[in-house]
Structures are given as C-alpha cells and as structure tokens.
Known about the structure:
The protein has 18 helices and 14 strands. It is an alpha/beta fold. It has two domains: about 5-205, Rossmann fold, CATH 3.40.50.300; about 220-410, 3-Layer(aba) Sandwich (Rossmann fold). The radius of gyration is 22 Å and the shape is elongated. The relative contact order is 0.12. InterPro entries: DEAD/DEAH_box_helicase_dom, DEAD/DEAH_RhlB, DEAD_box_RNA_helicase, DEAD_helicase_RhlE, Helicase_ATP-bd, Helicase_C-like, P-loop_NTPase, RNA-helicase_DEAD-box_CS. This is ATP-dependent RNA helicase RhlE. DEAD-box RNA helicase involved in ribosome assembly. Has RNA-dependent ATPase activity and unwinds double-stranded RNA.
Amino acid sequence: MTFSELGLRAELLRAVEAQGYTTPTPIQRQAIPAVLNGGDLLASAQTGTGKTAGFTLPMLQRLADGKRPGKRQIRALVLTPTRELAAQVGESVADYGRHLTLKSHVIFGGVGQQPQVDAIRPGLDVLVATPGRLLDLQQQKHVDLSQVEILVLDEADRMLDMGFIHDIKKILKVLPPKRQNLLFSATFSDEIQALANKLLDRPAMIEVARRNTTAELVDQAIYRVDREKKRELLAHLITENDWHQVLVFTRTKHGANRLAEQLSKQEIPAMAIHGNKSQSARTKALAAFKSGDLQVLVATDIAARGLDISELPHVVNFELPNVAEDYVHRIGRTGRAGSEGQAVSLVCVDEHGLLKGIERLIKRDLEKRIEPGFEPDPNAKPEPIENGRNRRGGGGGRGGQGRGNGAQTRGQGSGQRRDDERGQARRRRRGGGNSGGGRQQA
C-alpha cells in the first residue's frame, strides 16, 4: 500500500514524498482512514512507529477540507506531555502542511510566554501545546479554544504519569462538546482505558503492538553488577565495544548530572537532559547527540519522552525504572523502523524485584550476563532505592516490597515527576510551591 491509496490530498502527498516516505507504517495504514472518517480513535503503538504522521496527515486534511472564511480560529488542538514532544509534533505539522494554507504554532513552558502570545494573536488553525502552558494562556484569555474541532492527546499514558489529568480535565471543560477526539498511547493500561471511556464516543480501536510488549528487533540483555561498579562497567562497555549514540537512563536528575560528569572525565563525551535543564541546554544536547558529536546522552524518563532519534543503536538502563511499563518505553527508542538495536540494563542486588516485575510484564526472561572483572558480590545486601515510585507493574527491591522511605506514590511530589511546564508566577498565584505537587495526583 502507498500513501496515495489512503485518500490523502495531493498537497499532503507531495509533503510526504519530500520527507522521503513511500510506504505507510501499520499505524498509519489504520489510523489515517479512521481519522479521515471523522470518528473518535483510541490507538496504541510503540514509539517509533510513525504515529505522529498517523494523526497529523488526516488532521490537516480534515482542516483543509473544511476551511472557514474569516479570521483563523484554533480548530485542532494537540496536547503533549513534554516540550520536546511538542516541538517534534509541531515540526511534523509544519512539514506535512507546507503546501496548505493552514497556520500552526507550538507553545510550552520553560520559556517566556510573550513570543507565544504574539504568535497566537493573529489566529491559528493548529495549536500544539503542553497542558500547563496552555492552561496558563487560556486563563489569561490569550487562547480561545471555543472553536476546536479536533482534539489529540498524544502520549496520553505519559501525561497521566506526570499528573496532567487535572489540567486535561480543565481544558476539556472549555472545549466544544462536539468534536473529534484522538487518543494515542504507547500502552493500553487500565488508566488509559478509564480515560478513553470518559473522553471517547464509540471510538475505532487500533493496537499495533501487542499490549506491553518490547520491540522484537531489540537485543535485550541484563548485566549483573554491584551498584558501586555500575559506572565503571558502563564506561567499559562503551569503550570496549566502541558504542556511539548511547542513550542512558537514570532515575533522578541528580543521578543524570553526576553520571554525565563522570563519563566526561573519562573522556567519554556525555551530557545530561532533564526537567531542570533550560530549554536551550536541552535543545543543544539533543542536537549534538543526533548529529553524532555527543557520544552519550544521559536522561530521565520524562526528559527523554518524545525524543525522535532515528536508528538509535544503544539504550542503557543505568538504573531500572521503578515502573515496569517505563522499561518498554525506554528500550522502544532503539530497534525502530526495521533497524536492529541493543538494550542493556545494569542490574544490582537492589533491583532484583524490579527486574522480576519487568519480566512479568513483557512475559519473557531476559538474558543475564556477567562481564569478566565486574562479577557481583554474591553476599551483597539490597539497599533502598532513592525516588522510588512503588506503583503499578513495579515492585521495588527486596523481592518487590516498597524500598524503605524512598518509595513514593505519584501524589507525594517526587522531584523527578514534578512538572516544570508552569513558571513560578503560576505557583505564586495558587498560593505557593505546593501547586506542582498537586498536579501529580491522578
């Protein structure tokens, strides 16, 4: 099947061809006709499957077909959980819509709002936004959402993880009740099903990947190692195997900073990316990593969400995630578009319970390896894991029990999960610094 067989306009086909795409992916083959049909959609696909084009192309076509005279109004709203994903979706809208007369813009927190207000004022057809900044501007009456015809929730599972559900509910209240709703998620969790039941009206359902499965082209392996030897083992694997473009995951922002500094001292070029970094620093690090100038990018789960890096060869879990589903998200960044990838996890005694939870979720036992010279101490005792989030699908160390006082629920204000999309002004308006923690309630 070709894109022309999906019923897309000539202007969109020209844009697709200019991007170098000829054959639609499975999610695109199913989603594009479903969206063009005008009904609601619930779609699940792993990252890297082409889902952005799966909703962007038919959304643009519907807007172009139903273009209204007069001042432009926001007729399509795309909500994303992170700045990086918002920017990525915004680029796709601009690229695919280049031969149409539609206007679009992207807004997110972490940068000044006035340039965004100035861009919105003349009128837009498509607005791509993170929930926090959108709600800020809407409450200040800079954004009118009364004419929205199409709502897209992209990476909906991550938005729930980040506690955006309250913001989403507030946004839904100011949207027209009659509209097309498109919900995209990497997994069909119970929370996503509950949200879909409230939001969607008799949706078409698409599930490209089997529920909570990992990419089949990814070589997954576990290296057993003592916690204090993880950094040495990581540096050893990178240098001995001559790995380049290595995406490394840590649980915390502090851990990401520390690991990037340590690797750089060992002449392995590395930078960290997380929510406390400025937008310019995040953009600079990502650009260097994509170009190959930066060998290692160390990231937290939230900061890495939405990173679009083609043919990423190596993903390393320096620390296993506390939520088993996050393992699927992490390693889904390699082995994309038919390319083979390698996912390596460095696992110490503290994380044996987390590993069991991951293996239960993906329904397979992962290969266990021991690197000569890095043999783990068989008598090592587990210790609590900092910033744990002992909830769905997880299980902490010590056989899956909560890990000491470090275990937190989503609502208890984990620093790593605190959204940074709203500025200090908003927190002041709401009576102090606790507003960030409030958003994490789900």
